[in-house]
Amino acid sequence: PQSVGVRIEYNEELAHKVFAGADLFLMPSLFEPCGISQMIAMRYGTVPVARKTGGLKDTVIDYVEDPHKGVGFTFEEYSSKELMHALLKARVYYDMSRCNHSKVWQELVKRCMKMDFSWERSAREYEGIYSNALMLRRYDS
């Protein structure tokens, strides 16, 4: 990375190329009710670095905190210091994979791509809740 470019616009085609070509996706949101960009990035196998807020804390599981389920790297405090710390954590694992032939980064990429953000699981959970409510109502009648 010898240069940096900036485009102040949104271009759908370019966005897909960026997601597909990046190794890391940075989402240091101060507030994020849901966030879909990290989900798109993960579908492409781009490992997220995100602040634990809103939907980001529900969708980006920190690898250091949970090596068996982690898909990215997170930080709590909205500060440049915390952001830098999370980026350095990510870089350690990225560099390990490139230098020591560690499989950690490849595993993170695979996990990201396998994440299921569809409505399937939520729909089954709601179905169970409503079924239980109906049974309780019938029992009380």
How would you describe what is shown here?
It is built from six helices and three strands; from the N terminus they run αβαβαβααα. 19% of the residues are buried. It has helices spanning 12-21, 37-43, 56-59, 80-99, 104-114, 120-140; strands spanning 24-27, 47-51, 73-75. The longest helix is centred in the last third of the chain and has 21 residues, at 120-140. It is mainly alpha-helical and 141 residues long. It has a single domain, classed as Rossmann fold, CATH 3.40.50. Strand 2, helix 3 (56-59) and strand 3 form a beta-alpha-beta unit. The mean pLDDT is 92. It starts with 11 loop residues before the first helix and ends with a helix. Strands 1-2-3 form a three-stranded parallel β-sheet, sandwiched between helices. Helix 2 packs across helix 5 (104-114). The radius of gyration is 19 Å and the shape is elongated.
Give descriptors for this structure.
Rossmann fold; 141 residues; 9% strand; 3-stranded parallel β-sheet
Largest sheet: 3 strands, parallel
Tell the overall outline: elongated
- Beta-strand proportion: 5-15%
CATH topology: Rossmann fold
Which H/E pattern describes the elements?
A: HEHEHEHHH
Largest beta sheet: strand ordering: 1-2-3
Model regions low in confidence, pLDDT < 50 over at least 5 residues: none
Any idea of the CATH class? Alpha Beta
